């Protein structure tokens, strides 16, 4: 580690020891029931965050089924996960559009059901009241240490003021370009360092650097907190994680695998930056590199099409050889709403990391690779990742005495 990186790491570490009473010792909330759990979203007024907050409230109120939420299936019924109705939302953002208005815009675009924002007006307003200014903004004169301290104070205040058992930080902000080699941490790493300092489990649902910055490696290793990431696997890469093992298992030789993404909204605008697109594509390519023998030709292209809004189309062209050298092609088209695909995964991960923290788990969680393009170790094949997730569900189940397994 360089001298400048070490100084940044030590700055991020100062005062970063989590509250030892938080892990493995759930407290009681009002009336003797389990205390609520906080979910702190980085990019809290974006499409994914707004959909997750509205979706959680809608499912908890019985207005809609929990479609897409793996943690609501029977396999997780005994895992001791916090109830959806116990989740309390807050976050950081650099924009000031209120959540109710953002939800109305998503409903107008067909992302949220018509009428849902008005039905959940009080829940959206309550979450919006817990959103704090992010940064750094243009012209911000605060250094890294000042920003980390501010963000960590926001997290501690949220936990204390709302009487929360624990707080899970989830990064759902727009993708950053790959950071340059300078003396400043990228914004995603500032938020990640603040999460560690405040004693909060951390999820990086984006391709941004987050905890993967070398200046935070020592801090993350010593924090005693569970964390997971990075880059949520919602569409094109999800399909790749299914198809790539199929070719290997059937002994078919993949010669080339190319892809194109057409998307609009905030993601499209962010990924129009070549640096951000490069960060995104690194995760998309990983599953092929991990699963397929050799290196098939081809790459992924990302095109910003503002007219598509929050919807995207992903196309893959796979050229492969069969028996006696027969040349064949498989083409796939995935059309979907990225926010609606991502939101249930965000809720799953917040619940799983909260329970993992309660159970005393720490460090990277490779058994959550099912959710990520760039997981923290383990297989990149979806079937194997799902098996690991189910194993984790069993390990998280409380014992008969009520203590973590």
Automatic annotation (TrEMBL):
InterPro entries with a match to the protein in the record: Myo-inos-1-P_Synthase, Myo-inos-1-P_Synthase_GAPDH, NAD(P)-bd_dom_sf
Gene Ontology terms: biological process: inositol biosynthetic process; phospholipid biosynthetic process
Biased composition (Low complexity): 1-17
Residue segments, region Disordered: 1-36
All residue ranges annotated as the Myo-inositol-1-phosphate synthase GAPDH-like domain in the record: 235-339
Top-rank taxon, per record: Bacteria
MF annotations from Gene Ontology: inositol-3-phosphate synthase activity
Family: Belongs to the myo-inositol 1-phosphate synthase family.
Protein name: Myo-inositol-1-phosphate synthase
């Amino acid at each position: 580690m360089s001298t400048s990186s070490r100084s940044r790491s030590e700055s991020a570490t100062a005062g970063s020891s989590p509250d030892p009473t938080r892990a493995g010792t759930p407290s009681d909330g009002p009336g003797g029931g389990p205390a609520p759990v906080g979910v702190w979203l980085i990019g809290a007024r974006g499409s994914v965050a707004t959909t997750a907050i509205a979706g959680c409230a809608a499912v908890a109120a019985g207005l809609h089924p929990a479609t897409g939420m793996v943690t609501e299936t029977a396999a997780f019924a005994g895992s001791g996960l916090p109830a959806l109705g116990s989740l309390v939302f807050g976050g950081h953002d650099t924009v000031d559009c209120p959540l109710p208005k953002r939800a109305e815009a998503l409903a107008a675009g067909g992302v949220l059901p018509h009428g849902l924002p008005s039905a959940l007006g009080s829940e959206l307003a309550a979450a919006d009241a817990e959103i704090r200014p992010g940064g750094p903004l243009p012209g911000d004169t605060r250094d890294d240490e000042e920003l980390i301290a501010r963000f960590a104070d926001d997290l501690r205040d949220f936990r204390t003021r709302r009487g929360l058992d624990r707080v899970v930080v989830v990064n759902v902000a727009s993708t950053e370009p790959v950071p340059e080699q300078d003396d400043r941490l990228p914004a995603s790493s500032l938020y990640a360092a603040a999460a560690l300092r405040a004693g909060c489990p951390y999820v990086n649902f984006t391709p941004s650097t987050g905890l993967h910055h070398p200046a935070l490696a020592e801090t993350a290793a010593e924090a005693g907190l569970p964390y997971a990431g990075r880059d949520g696997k919602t569409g094109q890469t999800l399909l790749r994680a299914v198809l790539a093992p199929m070719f290997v298992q059937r002994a078919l030789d993949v010669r080339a695998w190319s892809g194109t993404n057409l998307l609009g909204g905030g993601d499209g605008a962010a990924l129009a930056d070549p640096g951000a697109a490069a960060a995104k594509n690194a995760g998309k390519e990983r599953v092929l590199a991990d699963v397929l023998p050799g290196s098939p030709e081809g790459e992924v292209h990302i095109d910003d099409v503002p007219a598509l809004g929050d919807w995207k189309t992903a196309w893959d062209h796979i050229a492969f050889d069969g028996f006696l050298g027969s040349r064949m092609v498989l083409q796939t088209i995935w059309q979907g709403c990225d926010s609606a695909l991502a939101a249930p995964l965000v809720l799953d991960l917040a619940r799983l990391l909260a329970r993992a923290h309660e159970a005393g788990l720490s460090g990277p969680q490779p058994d959550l690779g099912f959710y990520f393009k760039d997981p923290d170790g383990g297989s990149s094949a979806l079937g194997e990742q799902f098996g690991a997730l189910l194993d984790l569900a069993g390990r998280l189940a409380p014992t008969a005495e009520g203590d973590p397994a």
